[in-house]
Amino acid sequence: MSASSVVLLPYAPSSVAVARQRLCSDLQEWGVYETAIDDAVLVVSELLSNALRHAHPLPSGQIRVAWRWTDEHVEVAVSDGGAATEPRAGRPTLSSLGGRGLGIVEYLATSWGVRHEGEVTTVWAVVTTVGTVSNGQVSVPEPVLRECG
Q: The pTM is what?
């Protein structure tokens, strides 16, 4: 099974909460496990926050957030109008106030990267949605329904 969604959002901080809620609702509806939902929502939040902080909006003045789910993973992607620098995971000091977003993405995602298509930059990440493997056995948590917000 697979499913996907694409949303165009205002280039504004309030869009982070909207994207988180929409992604969470979709993944719950599609039967994704709670821990995978939490990871995917955090990843999209970091990618979108970084785009709003460091990049320009798309030519429409908006930002695009997309996600695609298969039985084993969810790929999230944030597309913007590009920036002067390439997105990369930083190595901030303990006293740094920022710079941890892509490090969090790197930790939670099985892979992530950057695509350039003309003036559009897309930062994507893949989060596993299957259970954990221990001693050759797959442990799949029970689905838990909760409010997305």
A: 0.81
